[in-house]
Amino acid sequence: MSPISEAKLSRFDFPEGFVFGAATAAYQIEGSGFGGAGASHWDTFAATPNNVVRAEDGRVACDHYHRWPADLDLLQAAHMDAYRFSTSWARIMPDGRKINPEGLDFYDRLVDGMLERGLKPFQTLYHWEMPSALADLGGWTNRDVAEWFADYAEATTRRLGDRVAAIATINEPWCVAWLSHFMGIHAPGHRDIRAAARAMHHVLLAHGRAVQRLRGMGQANLGIVLNFDHTDPASQSPEDLAAADRWDGIFNRWFIEGITRKTYPEAVLAGLSSHMPQGWEKDMDLIGQKLDWLGVNYYTRHTVAAAKDTPWPAIRDVPGNLPKTQMGWEIYPQGLEGFLVRMARDYVGDLPLYVTENGMANADVVEDGAVSDRIREDYLFAHLAATKRAIDQGAQVKGFFYWSLLDNYEWAEGYDKRFGLVHVDFQTQKRTPKSSYHALARALARND
Ligand code: FCB
Fold first, then answer.
1. Domain residues for 187?
2. Ligand 1 atom closest to residue 175's alpha carbon, by position in its atom list
3. 410 with 417: CB under 8 angstroms?
4. Residues with CB under 6 A from ligand 1
């Protein structure tokens, strides 16, 4: 790794007003067994053998539903400016349609708690809890999902919209659609190209419909959070170059081009068009609603090769040789710089960008009441430095959110993979800030 930790950045290396924060997601921390939350497709996915490590689920998670005041105190004590959190569809609408007042009350208290602590609330509407009742109707494969989602967005915004600083519609549409409907790795666990094609389109349709609805209500600062994966070809052969282009198209171009150009990449339509919902072209104007900001999630790089004699997209993974995190993800900060610059140059110009997630998993342990995670400090400061380089090249990056505030439920990986700045003992729920938390707090402390 770079020697960046020897010369750490501070708040003052970034433009005036740049916001620093940490991110979480409802299902990963709250505990879905509390407060009248309805079942979501994650509960049933987790209850099905071999989907999740040790079949762990989010029923208790970090018990944030009860411990949120102390968790918000941790953000404030680290001098953070903002908190990226998500509201759970299944908590607010347990049957997918009717409001659970207890659910909205919870987020009402949470948002007020942020404001009391000087934290800007950055809300995400969908970080993956599709209510089971709507999953029963086909979830993301059903076109009606756009209207269901807009109804949920509207109901939630009626209650919280006067106090949140920003709203993202969807977190990581690639995960919602491809990872969950083609690769089968996340809920609902489908491995079906037709389901995937529909989800790839409907997730953007739902985004567009929600933006349109919220704009109609006069709501400001609407965006979406996309994830990007730096993609290298395994060799310079035409086959591997084309495979890398297909992967880049599926992962990195489909969503941003749908929104900013109202088209999908040819390299992806080549495989998906026969499975797309009829008349999808007519939806592109709705999908291309104007955004106020774009969120960029970035973790790693990927090396791919052509997979001969397999159906489209005919891609296989090739292990890379860079140092890896506990997830097995290569550490490649230049990729973040690259995407921030690429977004500004190719797609969004001067639109405000936020790094909405970046972080690493590490097998952290508590020793003598403390956690030393120097490797995460290096990771974090190397990615902050990459963000600064992108700003120096003209990308209008306005903030950076570390993933995650707390160790939490890492989806199909269960509680094994620790991403937090703060260690969580899942037996006792004790929180222990790690050395990375303290390093970031020092960098953000104001002494002017
Ligand atoms: C992202 C998700 C987030 C977390 C991190 C590690 O894909 O948005 O919930 O799981 O990865």
1. 3-444
2. 7
3. yes
4. 25, 28, 171-172, 175, 227, 297, 357, 403, 410-411, 419
Exposure letters 92-128 (e unless 16+ CB within 10 A, then b): bbbebeebbeebbebbeebbebbeeeebbbbbbbbbb
Expressed in percent and rounded to 5, the helix, strand and coil fractions of the chain are 45, 20, 40
Cα–chain center distance at 261: 22
**Structural domains in the chain (count):** 1
Active site residues: 172, 357
Note the pLDDT tens digit of each residue in 265-281. 999 999 999 999 999 99
Within a 10 A sphere around the Cβ of 269, how many other Cβ atoms? 16
For tokens 């052509």, the residue is: 306
CA dihedral 148→152→153→154, nearest 10 degrees, is: 100
For the CA of 172, the closest atom of ligand 1 is 8
Cα three-residue angle 301-303-305, rounded to 5 degrees: 160
Q: How confident is the prediction for the chain on average, in pLDDT? A: 97
Look up the CATH number of the domain holding residue 271.
Answer: 3.20.20.80
